[in-house]
Amino acid sequence: MDKKVQSVKWLYLTAFLLPVLAMAQEKETKKDKETNIDEVVLVGYTKVSKKDVTNAVSSVKAEAIKDMPSNNAAEAIQGRLAGVQVSLSEGSPGADVDIVIRGGNSITGSNAPLYIVDGVQMDNALTILSPKEIESIEVLKDASSTSIYGARGANGVVLITTKGGRKRAKTSINYNGFLGVRSIQNTINVLDPYQYVLYQYEIYNKGGVQTDIDAFNTRYGSFQDIGKNYGNIKKIDWQDEVFGREAFNFTHNIAVTGGSENSSFSLSLNNVQEDGIMIGSGFKRNMANFKYDYDLSKKLSMTLNARYSRQTIYGAGTSATGSQSTNRLRNAVRYQPFEGGPAQNIDEFDPLFANETNLVNPLILADNEVKENGRNDLLLNGVIEYKINKNFTFRSVIGYVQRDEFVNQFSGVVTSLARQNNDQPVVFLSKAQSRRITNTNTLNFRKTYGSHKVDFLLGQETVKTDAESLTMNIKWLPKSISPQEAFANIQSASPPSGLVQDNPRTELLPDRIVSFFGRANYIFKNKYIVTASMRADGSSVFGPGNRWGYFPAASVAWKINEENFLKESRVISELKLRAGYGLSGNNRIKAFLYDTFFTTSSDYGYAFGTNVTPGATTGNIMANKNVKWESATSKNAGLDFGLFKGRVYGSVDVYQTDTKDLLLLAKIPQTTGYEYQYQNSGSTTNKGIEVSVGSTIISNDNFTWKIDANISSNRNTIKSLGSSASASSNYYLFPSGWQNNLNDFLVQVGKPVGTYWGYVTAGRYEINDFDYNPTTQAYTLKAGIASSAAAANGARPVQPGDLKLEDLNGDGVIDNNDMTDLGSAQPKFYGGFNQTFRYKNWDMSVMFNFSVGNKVYNANKIEYSTQYLYRDNNMLAEVADRWRWFDDNGVKVNDPTALAALNANTTMWTPPAGAYFLHSYAIEDGSFLRLNNLTIGYSLGKDFTKQLGLSNFRLYFTMNNVFTITGYSGYDPEANTRRNPLTPGVDYAAYPRSRFILSGVDITF
């Protein structure tokens, strides 16, 4: 059956069944009474009662996300945790998810947290977990809690516990599946065919060069024909052609759980088949997880867990993190907004047109770029727990994690890469494998002496990681070869005479960590709590003499509500004051950077006879034997409260994190023969406040209304860049990379990381800015008016209507000295709020997230409003309101009075013809309020489900990314495509975000 017909039928069936089932079950409204259970959280290798926690910890339990259908566990927690920013880099299937805890501490290193899944370290763990199999997620935010994880704990720790079975429970089978469709949410407005050709007429005819005039007439016809030929021509919206398809999603989750008197088990299976809204893109994933617990005796128990995930992302996407040459979105935005034309047909690939415009028909290009990005993850872990006596417990965890990744990418004959290589296809192949063995052993002592309760933990941990990668770039394949044939037959490539293929590149990345740690916890009269911990880590990525790092921490708490003056309070049911201090470490750099190694490639080759012989080089990063641990010191103070017997609850935290000895990829003088070197150079600080609050507003047998909300504010500041980070130790400029040689970010002491650097837009030059010579018909800038020629116009003399920039230093020349701080990606505050409603058997949840005060660097806006080197490129719709040089009859106007009258109602400047550069026109307010998820469900009553032989039956309807309130003009204010801590908030060629509408069923047998 056709996917679309299936999806529509499913949606209609759900919409029909919900009210029918509601009527059938109208009498079954009694709600089970809630029980007050002492909630526990996982903190530092052991579980602790939430009431006794002294650290800054945020948690999400299965109950909060169980009714939210999603294939990405990170999406399920977005906006739910104070101080935790969860954002998708773009909207492509399987897109990377960024999780940043309390702002970024590192500058050039990774700011990703450390993930621990069932006691075993994993990278990007949320991407291989289904939300349905998560029991709890605890996020450790301050160093007093993260320091016991030492290495890599500086950016926070995410502890994930997966669901298991229950002892003495009968076997149950749960099926949760949904069917949905994605569609593009918004597009970039561009010139229509008539506006487009008028703009081309101006470009071709403005200079008065006859060959250009003739070229326009050949391609588009005469001016008199523009209205007739293009006024009513069908507009082709290439964005709709490329991204406008209905993308279907089929997701199935099956869980089988059960247990006996001394054992329990769970088996969960997940299958996802998802189309992307972009043609040729999609995502497939299969996951299986088996968990088994067995009590060998009253003292000895064991847990075995096996997880396997296999996923593949299809499609070349819209861009890579590289420069403008990788931008595939450009073809959908800038390609002429009609097919063919009266003068000539370019529906088929025309290499001359491609060279003249740097564009390819986006549909043809999509067929010529094939990419498969696959990843297989295996996790095996076992836990043995031995209760030596009622006070002592020994626990050992051993885990094995393996990740295999591959990339197969084919660039057909129409792609720019193939055209650069003799018009022959090119294949890129990459394979990588990493293997990690973890062993953690802990001895725990717990005892109560009257009013005194003590808890001691001693532990030892080893983490052994090995990884290798292989990349190959195969050029000069046969023109007729298909992508799959090319992947399987790279030997069919035949280099032209005198040329050789690039050598394959290999990389070995071993990493060893050995650790010793301990923690002591003391509680007096259930009022006063003191916790102290210490960890020592030895890491192989550092050279001899710098391998050990030491990370102490301490925290205290006072349960004020246990004092006599509050114990009988009818209002305050919980009031706990917390304070903590700790040191955590970061070692996220590649292995062997303390030594020098060589790589070979034909890129470094030299001519020998008629051939090119590959050469060897050390690369552009200089070794540094003195590099050592980056460390973060965190201070935290918090207050937890509960009012009216827990009907209102929340917490407030204030913190400061100071990171020093930054693992900085520093620029060094090129006289060294290198460009960069990893150094412990500089420091940053993050200060912030977090507030979370929740309430059960109404709770009775028929109706329940709960709300949870959080809001956070973080201020990041660079305190030092060290003495050798650049020519000036106070600052340096850094490129975002979307355009070569464009230094558009400022890294400066006293500024936040991610500060945009560019010119201030001052509108355009007007007639009264010039002196006019009627004899030569030339416009010359008046004395005292600064010229933007060098910065914005390719050194051409400015004319009326050209882009004008602010002369900030007042020297009469607009150059690099007039560039300034244009803001940063750092929001003033961010957060989210969730409301859940239950009325009889109906349920509804509404999840919002928001950000206020952050700036977004809309690089698309710069590219799509700049002529640069090419004609016949479409532009943003606002370019239709540009300065005009030609009247309605196609005659150029030079007279100042007539020209001013012609442009009396226009506001936009003439698209610059020079190189791309950043100015404040592209820096937009990225504040937004997004309704991330709306879910409505209906559950059959217990009596009715029993008659069907079921224990649960629920139908639900969901919309994800329902709407976004924002002033941002691009696809998505959350886009972040550069993947570098120094260059956040850049929206360049991001895959458009989509709206997801789905319906599903949750059945338990």
UniProtKB/TrEMBL annotation:
GO terms for cellular component: cell outer membrane. It comes from the Bacteria. Residues 50-157 form the TonB-dependent receptor plug domain. Its main location: membrane. PROSITE patterns: EF_HAND_1, TONB_DEPENDENT_REC_3. It comes from Chryseobacterium takakiae. Belongs to the TonB-dependent receptor family. Transmembrane segments: none annotated. It holds the Pfam family Plug. This is TonB-linked outer membrane protein, SusC/RagA family. Residues 1-24 form the signal peptide. It is found in: Cell outer membrane. The keyword Thylakoid does not apply. Keywords: Cell outer membrane, Membrane, Signal, Transmembrane, Transmembrane beta strand, Transport. It is a multi-pass membrane protein.
